[in-house]
Amino acid sequence: MYKLFAYPNSYAMSAHAILEETGAPYDVHWVQIFTDSPDPAFLVASPHARVPALQTEEETIFETGAIALYLAEEHPESDLLIRENMPGRATFLQWLHYLASTLQPDVIIQFHPELYFPDDEDAQKCLLLASMGRLSSVMDVIENTLAVGPYFCGEKRTILDYLFVMQAIWPEIFPTSAADYPNIDRLIKTLLERPAVTRAYGQHIQEQRAPIKADGSPAPDGYGLHKET
Ligand SMILES: N[C@@H](CCC(=O)N[C@@H](CS)C(=O)NCC(=O)O)C(=O)O
């Protein structure tokens, strides 16, 4: 039985949706992040106290891309990989790393510029602007790639689509709106129609609405990366 350390409406959603796709049994362990006293078990699994982290029968791992790849390899029946020696493998690896190292850092900046410039609102505004410029060119590149789609790997749905879409559902990471990127918009809609994705996403929305604190007091501001409206 897997244990997924998660925080509502966060990067944990892609790992969560992939877990659902595999059909493997799992428990979600909801944890608090951005706290001075993270859950000790969570800290062991994820030394920066960032979600997601996954406890398997043998070990614990962190980093969304690694968790996604691990789950897809462990559960080949889910058919979410371009494997070694398959055509398109190199491109698959390219996008896997692009999503983690080129897209993701600018996504986190859009939600938490204060992590980079605490107590300097002007610097935060400059960072947000510069980072959105970088996101804009990333979105152009992805939009272009998906023109051949519908998925990152053409006709084949892979973990890449989950890794991207579960971030692309946040309007804050687009210069204007996802609707201005027809191929991205189509991919988001296609993936969100999948029962496994709906189940995972539904748990995050439900948890985001529920208070996390043991004393039952309301969730703190900023609970969930993207605040529901
Ligand atoms: N590269 C990491 C990033 C994880 C990450 O930054 N997660 C955010 C939530 S979406 C988090 O836990 N932030 C808490 C913190 O930075 O202290 C991954 O993909 O797993």
Please give a structural write-up.
By secondary structure, the chain is an alpha+beta fold. It is 49% helix and 7% strand. It contains eight helices and four strands. Helix 1 crosses helix 6 and helix 5 crosses helix 7. It is globular, with a radius of gyration of 17 Å. The site of glutathione has 15 residues, from helix 4.
Strand percentage lies at: 5-15%
Quick one: how many beta strands? 4
In round numbers, the mean pLDDT is 93
How many separate helices? Answer: 8
Major sheet: order of its strands? Answer: 2-1-3-4
Entry summary:
The protein has two domains: 2-79 and 196-209, Glutaredoxin; 89-194, Glutathione S-transferase Yfyf (Class Pi), Chain A, domain 2 (Up-down Bundle), CATH 1.20.1050.10. The chain contains eight helices and four strands, in the order βαβαββαααααα. The protein has helices at 12-22, 40-45, 64-74, 89-111, 121-146, 159-168, 182-192, 195-209, and strands at residues 2-6, 26-30, 53-55, 60-62.
Q: Strands, helices and their partners?
A:
Layout: E1 2-6, H1 12-22, E2 26-30, H2 40-45, E3 53-55, E4 60-62, H3 64-74, H4 89-111, H5 121-146, H6 159-168, H7 182-192, H8 195-209
Residues 7, 10-11, 33-34, 49-52, 62-64, 104, 108, 225 line the site of glutathione.
